[in-house]
Amino acid sequence: MADQSKSSKVAGDQPGQGTDQGMAQDSSKPVTSGERSVRWSPEEWQAELLSLRKQIDRLDHGLVLMLANRFSLTRRVGEIKARVGLESFDPQREAEKIADIRQLCNLHDVNPELMVDILAQIMRETVKNHDKFRSSLQSQP
């Protein structure tokens, strides 16, 4: 039987192969894809990496746009809260959001702790923005 540790390695997992150019230089070595092993030429795996990275870049740009839209909405929430005298921080709302995000992460196989950390940072920034707006309202004559 073949050595399972070699056949289950993905290109770049082996020591000393930290750069793209160091990945799968020997195109005769199999690269695993799920349950099957495929042989890729350097042109094929380089094209695949480029394609995947372009998709990642588009998603990263989308994340920035979604975050900008989210801050636009939370800015309006902050204005309302400041004008009617509500606190910037709503612990019940934050707890509900975190519980919802954890559940969503579990459904989509995403690390819930990572997402909770990200969301907590976004919410801290939101509260900071709310407080800035409240201060600017209070300083007006």
Describe the 3D structure.
65% of the residues lie in helices and 4% in strands. It is mainly alpha-helical and 141 residues long. The chain has a domain at 47-138: Up-down Bundle (Chorismate Mutase Domain, subunit A). The chain has a two-stranded antiparallel sheet. α2 runs parallel beside α4 (112-138). The longest helix is centred in the middle third of the chain and has 43 residues, at 42-84. It is elongated. The model is unreliable at 1-28 (pLDDT under 50).
Please state the overall shape, judged from the principal axes of the Cα atoms.
Answer: elongated
The CA-CA distance between the termini, in Å, is 82 Å
Strands of the widest sheet, in order across it, are 1-2
Q: How many β-strands, per DSSP? A: 2
Number of helices: 4
Residues in helix, %: 55-70%
Question: What are the key terms here?
Answer:
141 residues; mainly alpha; Chorismate Mutase Domain, subunit A; two-stranded antiparallel sheet; disordered N terminus
How would you briefly describe this protein structure?
The protein is mostly helical.
